[in-house]
Automatic annotation (TrEMBL):
Residues 14-309 form the Enoyl reductase (ER) domain. It comes from Sphingomonas aquatilis. Transmembrane segments: none annotated. Keywords: NADP, Oxidoreductase. One of its GO terms (molecular function) is NADPH binding. InterPro entries: ADH-like_N, ER, GroES-like_sf, NAD(P)-bd_dom_sf. Pfam families: ADH_N. This is NADPH:quinone reductase-like Zn-dependent oxidoreductase. It comes from the Bacteria. Gene3D superfamilies: Medium-chain alcohol dehydrogenases, catalytic domain, NAD(P)-binding Rossmann-like Domain. The keyword Mitochondrion does not apply.
Length: 311
């Protein structure tokens, strides 16, 4: 029996555990050029929780349904949309709103999922793998270059390590805990503790900001690149010395390119998933109604793998 549709929604900004509420969802109308997707799986990412906390209040409209990536099946199409898409698995991109049973969006923003990519892989194929792919392409490390990575044991950190290693550059994984260091034993990287002297780096990729980001920047040789793509510390970069940090936002790129170009990029991502470079482990799955348990698990120290919501 099909469960009634639900959505996870914030009517005010604040601590996600306190302000997110699970509400019933009526079947939304499907307009011209749109499709209705029944969501199968959607991960919890920092980029989903940061807007809920109010960090981007000026550009986040309330009420707000989080979820910038996931996978589902097209269940209904509007006028001027190929009815042959009904039943196809897709990534419904271009906007938030994946933390609900049913999501309506323009058909042009749906990426078809290949049959050999499973739902777990598809649900986590966009934000981390595509960000990593584009950052490595932008930096273009040369064989022998040393590239430092903060939050190296995170999902995207691991993908960056593998993609950098595939260029024959040297990935330097910066960690803060023993569990993080141990979890990287099988990854092609040199592990460096954040409170020890940094080796000289030709490039750096920072997801943390704050003091860690500044220390990373200080280790980059003159002329080297630093890409700053996250603020896990909650603190901005206080200064990067002689190194200029380039700010990387996936949204800016995705919304500036054509849908054909996005299709091509995701085709490369699916290939990276197939060979294991963009593989993301799943720690647990929770029904949408169990968001409290899911968020608690997501915040657990030493968590290994992504938390999936199953709407």
């Amino acid at each position: 029996m099909t469960q009634p549709p639900l959505r996870m929604i914030a009517h005010r900004f604040g601590i996600p555990m306190e302000v997110l509420a699970c509400e019933p969802l009526g079947r939304p109308p499907v307009a011209y050029g749109e499709v209705l997707v029944r969501m199968t799986a959607t991960p919890i990412n920092p980029s989903d929780l940061i807007p809920v906390a109010g960090a981007y209040a000026a550009r986040t409209s309330l009420p707000f349904v989080p979820g910038y990536e996931g996978t589902g099946t097209i269940e209904e199409v509007g006028d001027n949309v190929d009815p042959g898409l009904i039943g196809r698995r897709v990534l419904p991109l271009g906007s938030a709103g994946c933390w609900q049973t049913l999501k309506v969006l323009p058909a042009d923003w749906c990426i078809l999922v290949p049959d050999d990519v499973d739902d777990d892989e598809a649900a986590t194929a966009y934000i981390n793998p595509l960000t990593a792919l584009l950052m490595v392409r932008r930096m273009a490390p040369q064989p022998g270059d040393a590239v430092g990575i903060t939050a190296a044991a995170s999902a995207i950190g691991r993908i960056l390590i593998r993609m950098i290693a595939s260029t024959r550059a040297h990935a330097v994984a910066i960690v803060r805990s023993q569990s993080a260091a141990e979890s990287l034993r099988c990854e092609p990287s040199e592990v460096v503790w954040s409170d020890t002297p940094m080796p000289r780096l030709n490039g750096a990729m920072d997801a943390v900001g704050g003091r860690a980001g500044c220390d990373l920047a200080a280790a980059v040789v003159p002329g080297g690149q630093m890409l700053h793509y996250g603020l896990l510390s909650g603190k901005p970069l206080a200064g990067t010395g002689a190194t200029t940090a380039q700010y990387f936002r996936l949204r800016d790129i995705v919304h500036a390119i054509s849908r054909a170009q996005l299709d091509e990029l995701m085709s490369v991502v699916f290939d990276e998933i197939r060979v294991g470079r963009a593989a993301i482990s799943i720690a647990a799955r929770y029904p949408l109604a169990e968001i409290g348990l899911a968020l608690t698990h997501d915040a657990r120290v030493g968590r290994s793998g992504k938390i999936l919501l199953c709407p």
